[in-house]
Amino acid sequence: MDYEQIRAFRNEKNLFGRQLGIYVEELRPGYARAVKTVEEEDLNPLRVPHGGVYFSLADTACGSAMAAYGTMAVTVSCSFSFLKSARAGELLTAEARELPGGRSICVLEARVTGAEGELLAVGTFTFRRLDKAIGP
């Protein structure tokens, strides 16, 4: 399987992720790393990134880790905790890792860190693996 081709496909076809400036840097089955620089437009009225920025970055990383298997998958549930805030201009990184488990129901943990490596958010995402092959 060509993981670089899947990664490029995910970056090109994820219109919402592109709008947010999310970029998948690396993926392999059960693992992915995605990044995003916090922009002024990402800030809430308190001048910190909106929670959806962290969540969307983590969900993109987890979905990419699932896509690396070559089949489609959909998020069915998630638990997410916000721990610290980043600042405008800061690079955020989300790393997703699959936990040992089932065939059709898969659980991944995502950790969102800031530029200095501090943990900003953590989530557990549950996916259903579908029997449909993913494009490119």
Question: Could you characterize the architecture of this molecule?
Answer:
A 6-stranded antiparallel sheet has the order 1-2-4-5-6-3. The chain has 3 helices and 6 strands. Helices cover 25% and strands 42% of the residues. With 136 residues, the chain is α+β, with helices and mostly antiparallel strands. The longest helix is centred in the middle third of the chain and has 17 residues.
Number of helices: 3
Q: Kindly name the structural category.
A: alpha+beta
Percent range of helical residues: 25-40%
Order of helical and strand elements = HHEEHEEEE
Low-confidence stretches: none
Largest sheet: 6 strands, antiparallel
SSE blueprint and pairings:
Layout: H1 3-13, H2 15-20, E1 23-28, E2 31-37, H3 51-67, E3 71-82, E4 91-98, E5 105-113, E6 119-133
Antiparallel strand pairs: 1-2, 2-4, 3-6, 4-5, 5-6
Task: Give a brief outline of the structure.
The protein is α+β, with helices and mostly antiparallel strands and 136 residues long. It is built from 3 helices and 6 strands, in the order ααββαββββ.
Features:
six-stranded antiparallel beta sheet; 42% strand; alpha+beta; globular; 3 helices; 136 residues
